[in-house]
């Protein structure tokens, strides 16, 4: 076990466990035996064990009889990449909570601790003001640390594990697939189109946890700083979220049509490559070129529609925090007097909510694409397989018994083969 694994949480955060090693290296040169081993948290899982677990989990998932068919995300995905994904989501969620709730409240109290302009005594003492400043610095460091570590686990480790296991399952399924099942080139489209795109989409999902906790923390912070007036801005941003969700539902159908068009284009290209000699001999270049161009035109049409919906939802998410902040401050100025201890924390909350409202429309679109790709991979892995073939050695004892039973007049009708003789070396 490594020295890092036996150290406490406080020692891991501040790297205190490296102190004895640094002192030892200061006194004398370090040897190989002095270097600690790799911590368990940074050791990669052997690919062979991971693939074996993926096959076992998928077999168990198919036997459950889940409504809607087996899902590769619930079986192998949860077992192989679930721990890293949920740990990263938890850390990203903690980071969002610190950004939108803890930091604005500390900033508000720190502004109240500053001496007012009119010469009245501040709300807090000087020592407490310094303590608030130190606490604010620690919170800023902690939110960046948790966000970076969460993105590593949920945005790097989990997607790589899931796509590697899914690719292995597809390759194994291709060898066992029944001859009459599936379509030509489907495995190529799944491996080269769906899985590669899925890995990139999964890297953005860790921001979902941070976005949701940021919304909850921002709601609480606005109510504590602005009162009921803060609900005006939140209501406007919530309306934008509902609208972007409706746009994402429309993009789901467009995404399905786009993937089907991509499959058709891959099939045409595969026919051209496999029958290149026949195409040249029969002078079918123009016909196949027109067919390929038609398939590509249909695919680009669906891609253009999907991009329009995606850009529209992203633009709404970018504009909603600024419009909501302006509307909230206008209404607040009509009812109350603007103060620095109120405006700056509220502005910090709206600024922190800008990123979640930009990312939420993108996350909605990515979730649609992720669900579509996972459904396609799961449907391929659930196709019927070839029946198991009996080995030729299984029939050997039966044949031997049959030969021993065939006797005529008490004598065997066949002769046993002569034993192998060793040829002496010359």
Automatic annotation (TrEMBL):
Residues 188-369 form the ABC transmembrane type-1 domain. It is a multi-pass membrane protein. GO terms for molecular function: ABC-type transporter activity; ATP binding. The keyword Metal-binding does not apply. Pfam families: ABC_membrane. Its main location: membrane. The keyword Transmembrane helix applies. The chain crosses the membrane at residues 84-102, 122-142, 230-248, 315-335, 355-374. Residues 392-426 are annotated as: Disordered. It is found in: Membrane. Keywords: ATP-binding, Membrane, Nucleotide-binding, Transmembrane, Transmembrane helix, Transport. One of its GO terms (cellular component) is membrane. PANTHER family: ATP-BINDING CASSETTE SUB-FAMILY C. This is Multidrug resistance protein a. It comes from Chrysochromulina tobinii.
């Amino acid at each position: 076990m490594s020295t890092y694994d036996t150290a406490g949480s406080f020692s891991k955060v501040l790297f205190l466990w490296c102190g004895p090693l640094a002192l030892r290296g200061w006194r004398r040169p370090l040897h190989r035996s002095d270097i600690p081993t790799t911590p368990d948290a940074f050791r990669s899982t052997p690919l062979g064990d991971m693939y074996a677990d993926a096959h076992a989990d998928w077999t168990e998932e198919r036997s459950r009889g889940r409504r809607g068919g087996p899902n590769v995300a619930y079986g192998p995905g949860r077992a192989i990449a679930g721990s890293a994904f949920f740990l990263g989501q938890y850390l990203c969620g903690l980071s969002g909570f610190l950004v939108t709730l803890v930091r604005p409240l500390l900033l508000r109290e720190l502004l109240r601790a500053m001496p007012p302009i009119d010469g009245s005594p501040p709300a807090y003492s000087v020592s407490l003001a310094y303590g608030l400043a130190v606490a604010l610095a620690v919170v800023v460091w902690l939110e960046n640390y948790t966000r970076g570590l969460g993105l590593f686990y949920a945005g790097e480790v989990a997607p790589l594990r899931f796509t590697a296991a899914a690719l292995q399952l597809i390759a194994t399924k291709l060898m066992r697939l029944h001859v009459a099942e599936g379509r030509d080139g489907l495995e190529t489209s799944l491996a080269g189109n769906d899985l590669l795109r899925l890995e990139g989409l999964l890297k953005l999902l860790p921001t979902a946890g941070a976005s949701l906790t940021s919304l909850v923390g921002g709601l609480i912070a606005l109510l504590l700083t602005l009162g009921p007036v803060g609900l005006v801005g939140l209501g406007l941003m919530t309306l934008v979220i509902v609208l972007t969700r409706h746009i994402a539902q429309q993009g789901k159908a467009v995404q399905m049509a786009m993937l089907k068009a991509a499959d058709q284009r891959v099939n045409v290209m595969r026919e051209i490559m496999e029958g290149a000699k026949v195409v040249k001999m029969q002078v079918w270049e123009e016909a196949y070129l027109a067919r390929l161009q038609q398939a590509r035109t249909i695919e680009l049409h669906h891609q253009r529609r999907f991009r329009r919906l995606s850009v529209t939802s992203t633009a709404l998410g970018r504009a909603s925090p600024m419009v909501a902040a302006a509307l909230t401050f206008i209404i607040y100025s009509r009812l109350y007097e603007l103060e620095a201890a109120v405006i700056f924390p509220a502005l910090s909350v709206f600024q922190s909510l800008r990123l979640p409202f930009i990312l939420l429309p993108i996350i909605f679109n990515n979730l649609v694409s992720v669900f579509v790709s996972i459904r396609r991979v799961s449907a391929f892995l659930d196709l019927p397989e070839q029946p198991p073939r009996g080995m030729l050695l299984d029939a050997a004892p039966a044949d031997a018994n049959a030969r021993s039973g065939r006797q005529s007049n008490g004598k065997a009708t066949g002769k046993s083969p002569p034993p192998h003789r060793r040829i002496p070396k010359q």
